[in-house]
Amino acid sequence: MIGGIAVAGALVIVTIAWLAARARRRPLSTGVETMVGATVEVVDDCQDRCVVRYGGELWNARTPSPLRAGQQARIVKVVDLTLWVEPQQD
């Protein structure tokens, strides 16, 4: 009886360790790292600072080149809560 409980406990521990190891190998699915390279939509015309839509939310953005409302842009970096974007190359 005690041997069966020990075996069952060991199987549970091995399964948990295997699941944890598998989860560590997965690529990131949240956070700033996943935002870089993503596409955003420009909400208003802008020269330097503007508002963009990313993931259904509005974000403040900075850009080195002028952007038009409705234009697609790519996130190049994230600083605090500001997205740095550049025009999407077609």
Account of the 3D structure:
- This protein is an alpha+beta fold and 90 residues long.
- It is built from 2 helices and 5 strands; from the N terminus they run ααβββββ.
Question: Major sheet: order of its strands?
Answer: 1-2-3-5-4
Query: What's the tally of helices?
Result: 2
What does the radius of gyration come to? Answer: 23 Å
Strand residues, percent: 25-35%
Fraction in helix: 25-40%
**What gross morphology would you assign?**
rod-shaped
C-alpha termini separation: 68 Å
Class inferred from helices and paired strands: alpha+beta
Helix and strand element order:
HHEEEEE
Tell how many strands the DSSP assignment holds. 5
The average pLDDT is 89
Query: Which regions have little confidence, pLDDT < 50, spanning 5+ residues?
Result: none
In this structure, how is the largest beta sheet organized? 5 strands, mixed, barrel
Would you summarize the structure shown here?
The chain is an alpha+beta fold.
List the helices and strands and how they pair.
Elements: H1 2-25, H2 32-35, E1 39-42, E2 49-54, E3 57-62, E4 72-79, E5 82-87
Parallel strand pairs: 3-5
Antiparallel strand pairs: 1-2, 1-4, 2-3, 4-5
Keywords:
90 residues; alpha+beta; 5-stranded mixed β-barrel; 2 helices; 33% strand
